[in-house]
Write a structure and sequence with these properties.
heterodimer, A: 229 residues, 43% helix, B: 722 residues, alpha/beta, seven-stranded mixed sheet, six-stranded mixed β-barrel, binds iron/sulfur cluster, transmembrane helix (chain A), membrane (chain A), Multiheme_cyt_c_menaq_reduct (chain A)
Chain lengths: 229, 722
């Protein structure tokens, strides 16, 4: 053995001597205590503080009452969120669709005043935040789902049609995407089909409808290019 | 309690365990992967409703119908309009990338006045009221001093209501100085006037012709209406129509042709007359096709015998005879001229000789032939009102001398402006207005033109783009670009019909610009008096609608109005004499052993409109590489001069000097060198500026002795290894 190794043993001995000097049982108690403190602190950080830090909130330009509008129109969601002649989906309505009724302030609400004065009269489109916008790498066709597969709006969008005011828009600070895509639940758990809209959620449904979705020869399921063009 | 190392480690381990059981690491991993797959700074075009809007492209004289695809209010793609009589769904690279003109960085976004030295690029944004006020004040003062003739305007065209409003403004104001930028149109008008005895232009029924003889016309390089020509080239291939391209250089057109006839540059007229002589000698001429033929017959037969012509042109006797026979025996042969894109005037001698060939076959004013077409006459405005100031101004001669004395045949002679400004003009010019033109880049000896502008105290540019001429202005009154405005687009460009296209606003104006027609109406009303009286329209749209009258509805519906049953300009071709002199070339062969010729490329826009960023990317790196421009040279000539591919050299002409790189090209005659037109910009944006050399700065104007038009087709040059 070289001199160097001997020195190392010496140091180790020195160290163990130190440990022996301390109160053995008290030390192990502290060790457990610190483990618990570390564990608890990181759990709080990960489950409570982290989601708060990761997601930022923005208020919609003004509050929108879906429930009231649904009651007024004849054709449910499609009255405002319709398919264009070329089959593409119109998404959030443009100002032109609203001005038919809202060329003057209707009712007393603050939201209505904001809408008419700041947008209708100024001819500015309302910069709504879209809760359900998919990432840019996703090709999503409403026509294929709603017209083709006869799915209803609730399956993906939940009961938004019954909401009486607009909840805050939450978006991920890293990716910039709406929280509705990853899911409200930070553990990624979901109870309802509309709780989360990630790739796995699409895939699950596409797998269940396995007879028609077989564009990939290898997997006998939908190929990547069905959604990622 | 003592926090020792063990406690600390256990705290860390506890932390690690807790973290692993929390969503933090997993969610972060997921989010960072999403972030890295879709960088937030990658531009993503917004989604929206898809609509298509039809309009007419006016980026070149071609007049193609276009369909613009829009997402909500943003134009995203320009396509050729299917079924359109000019381009039937086709589009060229310039038209295709027109959106870069609309949204690109070269736009002038608001009226501006110059702040620093002229040309220093220091501007201040001002309101339209202030801008028009400034100009009105200047113009009114000049008019009050009865010096209206000292105001001049340069326009890129005189066709359509917008240029016509500018010409009308000048006439009502009292200035004879409305000057159109030079183009082949000048020569064509002159040739039609001389040969047919009436005002008009030519049109060619290319689609029905069965033999094409092109004297340097870039039939696949942007001549005439470029998309129509590309389609015609394909049609000829399909129908096996022989295409003979006479060209000193293996241009794209020559490469596509059935037969390429390399010729000594500048001798095209000799070849045309030589072919005519063979046709006459072999009795292959349609009877009575050309009046006055008897008078020139003997001269033709003696002076242009194939042997003689072969000596001067470098084309073999057999080739001359063969082409003459094939041309004459074809049912509907057509001869074309106008070098490259036909953007410059040509020698009258050459043009008349080529039109004579068409006359000799008898294929004039009939299907598959050459047509002489009377000018479009849909603009019928009342005479301008003339007060005392206007009459006084209009009694003065034109500043460029066109229309009188030795220049009696010419209508516009822009190349004479620098000389006039430098002391040889009849009077000084106090205000110059420039619309749809960039003479500081596109005129021969552009540098001299730019320098002469120093003599003009006030220059106004209506350009939409930050071009070289706008850079020299004192006041910028930017026009909308073609996709933002209404305008009639009468299409000449060799079409055998009267065709008018309609430009419609596809998107609303992107910046604080104003339609030139509108600006002129505003200006006329501000100047007042008889000028205002001559502009009775409320706005440009009313003016356009009233002018187009019953054509308006057709144009709004179909986007194009075509009259196939148009009036011709004279019925037969009369040849008077063959003594029209040739256009000589500048420079002496001793000092300058080479011959420099500019050439046109469909990938390089060289007029008022500069190349788009998209187009410049398609230019081969044997034309420009980085910032260096290339000159094409025959390997034999290069060998003699010790030059090899890519070498840096200094190119010198009597007009200037430029550093170039050498590109060896078998397709060019020994002793001749060629450079692409349209490069070497100093203005515009980083995509176009400082790339290559502006060949117009190396070539000086050469006047055609018979007209005064600048018909320079090259210059003598020398090349030395740098
Ligand atoms: S050929 Fe001329 S008119 Fe036609 S698309 Fe191209 S630039 Fe426009």
């Amino acid at each position: 053995m070289s001199t160097l190794d001997e020195k190392a043993t010496e140091v180790m001995d020195d160290d163990s001597a130190h440990a022996k000097g301390a109160n053995e049982s008290g030390a192990s108690g502290y060790i457990i205590l610190f483990f618990i403190i570390g564990f608890a602190a990181s759990m709080v950080l990960g489950w409570v503080a982290f989601p708060k830090l990761l997601y930022s909130q923005k208020q919609q330009p003004f509050s929108f009452n879906h429930a009231m509008h649904v009651a007024e129109v004849n054709n449910g969601c499609e009255s405002c969120h319709f398919f264009r002649d070329d089959g593409s989906f119109s998404g959030i309505p443009k100002l032109a669709q609203c001005t038919g009724c809202h060329d003057e302030t209707m009712g007393e609400s603050e939201a209505e005043a904001t809408f008419v004065e700041q947008y209708v009269w100024e001819e500015r489109e309302v910069p709504w935040y879209s809760y359900s916008r998919q990432p840019d790498c996703v090709f999503f066709s409403h026509a294929a789902h709603v017209v083709g597969a006869k799915m209803d709006c609730v399956t993906c969008h939940g009961h938004i049609g019954e909401s009486e005011s607009s909840r805050p828009y939450e978006y991920n600070r890293i990716t910039g995407y709406s929280r509705d895509i990853w899911g409200k639940n930070i553990a990624g758990l979901k109870k309802n089909s509309w709780d989360r809209m990630k790739m796995d959620d699409c895939a699950q449904c596409h797998k269940e409808a396995g007879i028609v979705h077989t564009s990939s020869v290898q997997t006998k399921r939908d190929a990547c290019f069905v959604c990622h063009k | 309690m003592k926090v020792d190392r063990r406690s600390f480690l256990s705290f860390v381990i506890g932390g690690a365990a807790g973290t692993a059981l929390s969503p933090l690491p997993w969610k972060l991993m997921d989010d960072s992967s999403i972030w890295s797959q879709m960088w937030p700074w990658t531009p993503v075009p917004p989604d929206g409703e898809v609509v298509y809007e039809d309009s007419t492209c006016s980026l070149c004289p071609g007049g193609c119908g276009i369909t613009v695809r829009k997402i909500d209010n943003r134009a995203v793609k320009i396509e050729g309009k299917p079924g359109h009589p000019v381009n039937d769904g086709g589009i060229c690279i310039l038209g295709l990338s027109g959106l870069q003109m609309l949204y690109g960085p070269t736009r002038i976004k608001a009226p501006m006045k110059r702040m620093g030295e002229r040309g220093a690029g220091k501007w201040q944004k001002i309101s339209w009221d202030e801008a028009l006020g400034m100009l009105t004040e200047k113009l009114t003062a000049i008019r009050e001093r009865e010096e209206a003739h000292t105001v001049a305007a340069i326009a890129g065209s005189d066709q359509g209501t917008v240029p016509a409003l500018l010409a009308r403004f000048m006439a009502a104001f009292g200035s004879p100085n409305f000057i159109r930028t030079p183009s082949y149109q000048d020569t064509d008008e002159l040739a039609v006037g001389t040969l047919f005895g009436e005002a008009g232009r030519t049109g060619f029924d290319l689609e029905n012709a069965d033999y094409i003889l092109s004297f340097g016309s870039g039939i696949a390089d942007g001549w005439g209406s470029p998309v129509r020509m590309i389609k015609a080239c394909s049609l000829w291939k399909e129908k096996r129509v022989p295409v003979v391209q006479v060209d000193p250089r293996l241009s794209n057109s020559a490469a596509k042709a059935t037969r390429w006839v390399p010729i000594t540059p500048g001798t095209e007229a000799d070849l045309a007359l030589g072919i005519a002589a063979v046709m006459i000698a072999k009795n292959l001429v349609g009877s009575g096709a050309v009046s006055g033929l008897g008078g020139i017959k003997n001269t033709l037969l003696t002076d242009y015998a194939p042997e003689k012509v072969s000596l001067s042109t470098g084309v073999s006797v057999e080739a001359i005879v063969e082409i003459a026979k094939d041309f004459a025996r074809a049912n509907r042969p057509l001869a074309l001229c106008g070098r490259g894109k036909a953007q410059s005037p040509e020698s009258l001698r050459e043009t008349a000789a080529v039109y004579l060939l068409n006359g000799l076959t008898g294929n004039v004013n009939q299907e598959g032939g050459m047509w002489a077409i009377a000018p479009a006459d849909y603009i019928q405005w009342p005479e301008v009102a003339r007060d005392k100031a206007a009459s006084a101004g209009l009694r003065q001669p034109r500043f460029d001398g066109a229309g009188s004395g030795q220049y009696a045949n010419a209508r516009h002679l822009l190349q004479r402006l620098p000389d006039g400004l430098n002391g040889n003009g009849p009077y000084p010019i106090q205000v110059l207005m420039v619309a749809d033109a960039n003479p500081c880049h596109s005129l021969h000896d552009a540098a001299a033109f730019k320098a002469a502008l120093d003599k003009i105290p006030f220059i106004v540019s209506f350009s939409s783009f930050n071009d070289e001429t706008a850079a020299m202005a004192d006041l910028l009154l930017p026009d909308h670009v073609y996709l933002e405005r209404y305008a009639d687009v009468p299409v000449a460009a060799g079409l055998p019909s009267q065709t008018i296209g309609l430009s419609k606003p596809v998107v609303s104006p992107q910046f604080n610009t104003r339609h030139l027609g509108e600006t002129l109406i505003n200006l006329a009303q501000a100047v007042g008096g008889s000028v205002a009286e001559s502009f009775p329209w409320k706005n440009y749209e009313t003016c356009l609608q009233e002018t187009l009258a019953d054509k308006w509805d057709v144009l709004m519906q179909k986007g194009v109005w075509v009259d196939d049953d148009f009036a011709t300009a004279g019925s037969s071709l009369q040849m008077a004499a063959l003594d029209t002199p040739a256009v000589e070339i500048e420079g002496d062969a001793g000092t300058f052993p080479l011959l420099l010729m500019p050439y046109d490329s469909i990938r390089i826009s060289s007029g008022y409109i500069g190349d788009t960023p998209f187009m410049i990317k398609t230019v081969a790196d044997t034309v420009i590489k980085g910032k260096d421009g290339f000159v094409e040279i025959n390997p034999q000539t290069a060998g003699e001069m010790g030059l090899s591919e890519g070498d840096l050299a200094t190119l010198t002409t009597p007009r200037g000097e430029a550093p170039v790189r050498v590109h060896l090209f078998e397709g060019i005659k020994p002793g001749v060198i060629a450079m692409a037109k349209g490069l070497g910009h100093t203005a515009y944006d980083g995509f176009l500026a400082d790339k290559g050399i502006n060949v117009n700065e190396l070539i000086g104007p050469v006047e055609d002795p018979s007209s005064g038009l600048d018909a320079a087709w090259g210059i003598r040059a020398k090349l030395a290894k740098a």
